Amino acid sequence: MITIDNQQVFTETSELVDPAHTALVVIDPQNDFCAEGGIFARTGKDMSTFPAAIRACARLVDSARAAGVRVIFIQNQKLPNGRSTSPAWLRFLTVRNGITEEPEVCLAGSWGAEFVPALQPTASDIVVQKWRSSAFVGTNLDMLLRVNGIRTVVCCGFITQGCVESTARDAGFYDYYPVVVEDAVANHDPALHEASLLVQRSRYDVMPSAEILPIWEARAPQLSRNA
């Protein structure tokens, strides 16, 4: 920790991810994005990197719960018949990718919007529904973090250059310390994944789960990282 402008600033990983003030934000681990039967898989997206990232997310979630880290699941949503989309948002979702009609990705109430089996919230977790890439836009996430005394937001989930990067950036803009877990995020394009992580490393902390898990496990020694 160092002092800048009379304020104490975290500099060590152990300070950043201290369970006393850290939340693990699990972004969009949903069937349409991550499962073989989801819309992205059915449209031919490369799903090869998702199983390892899902397993890494699950290890983080287990460790976080045992250490007393607040776990927050983010669930992307879309209402039918365009009730939650605008022309500008539709251009982002469709026209930029050469699509003339938006598929019903994460349609509210559908199987595609549900969380994958390996990443299910429990009664102790919080679920926040969102309607845009960033989990902060149009949601109560900032309020929930503040009332729980959170200073650091550890991000994992999907998709690297989309909802993960958008949420991590906004976490910093809302005056939280953003941390992105590089082996617990994934997308369908390795080039975009690496480009996103390169940009994110220039702005905030990006690290492997192996740097975080021992710190959390020290608060919960009964949990083995290899379990």
UniProtKB/TrEMBL annotation:
Pfam families per record: Isochorismatase
Entry's Gene Ontology molecular function annotations: hydrolase activity
Annotated Isochorismatase-like domain residues: 22-198
Listed name of the protein: Cysteine hydrolase
Keywords: Hydrolase
Stored InterPro entries: Isochorismatase, Isochorismatase-like_dom, Isochorismatase-like_hydrls, Isochorismatase-like_sf
